[in-house]
Amino acid sequence: MADGQRPRGFGLMDRDFHGYGATPPDPQWPGGARLAVSLVVNVEEGAELSLGDGDEANEAAHEVTEAIEGGPDLLMESHFEYGTRAGYWRIADLLDRFGVRATFSASARALERSSWLAADIVARGHEVSAHSYRWERHAQMVEADERAVIARTVAAIRSAAGRRPVGWHTRSASSANTRRLLVEDGGFLYDSDAYNDDLPYVLEVGGRSHVVLPYAFDTNDMRFFRNLGFTLGADFQRYCTDAFEWLYAEGARAPKMMSIGLHLRIIGRPGRIGALAALLETMTAKRDVWFATRAEIAQHWRWCMGLPPFVPAAE
Q1: Which residues 6+ apart lie within 8 Å of 13 measured at CB?
Q2: N or C terminus of the chain with fewer C-beta within 10 Å?
Q3: What phi and psi, each to the nearest 5 degrees, are found at residue 57?
Q4: How far apart are CA 184 and CA 186, in angstroms?
Q5: What gap in Å lies between CA 58 and CA 74, rounded to an integer?
Q6: Domain boundary assignment for the chain
Q7: How far apart are CA 80 and CA 94, in angstroms?
Q8: Other CB atoms within 10 Å distance of the CB of residue 163
Q9: Given pLDDT bands bounded at 50, 70 and 90, which one contains residue 4?
Q10: Strand partners, 257
Q11: Please, what sign has the CA dihedral across residues 94, 101, 261, 251?
């Protein structure tokens, strides 16, 4: 048994506490970049749990923490609507201004309800990846149900965006089956259901090589909610800038990847968007930084690991 791995037979996935250790691989980022930066814009508006949409409960994760039971939560719904009505345009225009392409991690029901949004994201040259059908965790989801959710997600995003997603990220906890079901689907190049490294890695799942692109909750605007650390836009800017500068310095000898998580209804507020503008100005001032979609990073990682380019299975 490898160091740090959990013994088999306990009904749990193996864990790896060692990773790349003291000798991480050289990712050979394009142009000799010191750092690959992945901006992930989460699109959840209209996919949040809502009794008004026939869901089992109202969404509890938003700026107002009062729980409404027994009927639609019109206040919560209004908070989410802000993301598409106003927040998206600020974020999209800012990305255009700095010439940065992002990955829009979209819950499929959100794009079903706002097909114009999917069209605009694609027209601007961004990636659309999958954030499940509803904005929900998959932990303890029955395998057959989860397989159906994945298929429904793929079909809905393909219909709205004109192309299928090749990346996946589950809200909160995935199930023990999620990654295997993604590989079984045959169309997913990568998932981001991990938070355990500053570099991608490859796992053998169901006899296939599957890329995992770790995500991050610390360099993430979700920390404006529920007293998780950010109060002012400057808090987000300072923290993400500190992370960027440290990883950039490390990149002189060991290049890494940085993920920055954004949400339409959070960073898209006028009191916060300036922090993203300042952060982008700092990062784009460095010439040896590669701003890429997660699909681009995952395909590059396959090349770096000596694997052929990923081609989705024929449907």
Answers
A1: 6, 176
A2: N
A3: -160, 170
A4: 5
A5: 10
A6: 30-304
A7: 20
A8: 13
A9: very low
A10: 36
A11: negative
Q: Which two tokens stand for residue 22?
A: 């003291």
User: CA 67 to CA 259: how far, in whole Å?
Assistant: 31
Q: Rounded distance, CA 188 to CA 213, Å?
A: 12
Element (H, E) at 212: strand 208-212
Q: CATH homologous superfamily for 30-304?
A: Glycoside hydrolase/deacetylase (3.20.20.370)
Helical residues (DSSP H) of the chain, grouped into ranges = 74-82, 88-98, 108-113, 115-123, 143-161, 178-185, 233-250, 273-284, 294-304
3-class DSSP assignment, residue 118: helix
- Please state, in angstroms and rounded to a whole number, the distance separating the CA atoms of residues 113 and 91: 20
Provide the residue type at 120 as one letter: D
Nearest CA-CA partner of 195 in 164, 216, 218: 216
Q: In what helix (H) or strand (E) does residue 100 lie, and over which residues does it extend?
A: none
CA–CA dist 239, 232 (Å, integer): 11
- Distance, CA of 222 to CA of 229 (rounded, Å): 9
Q: Is the distance from CB of 127 to CB of 104 less than 8 angstroms?
A: yes
- Cα separation, 134 vs 170, whole angstroms: 10
Angstrom distance (rounded) from CA 140 to CA 66: 26
Q: What is the pLDDT of residues 39-90, one digit of tens each?
A: 999 999 999 999 999 999 999 887 777 788 899 989 999 999 999 999 999 9
Task: Give the pLDDT confidence of 88-109 residue by residue, as tens digits.
Answer: 999 999 999 999 999 999 999 9
User: 212 - beta bridge partners?
Assistant: 191, 201
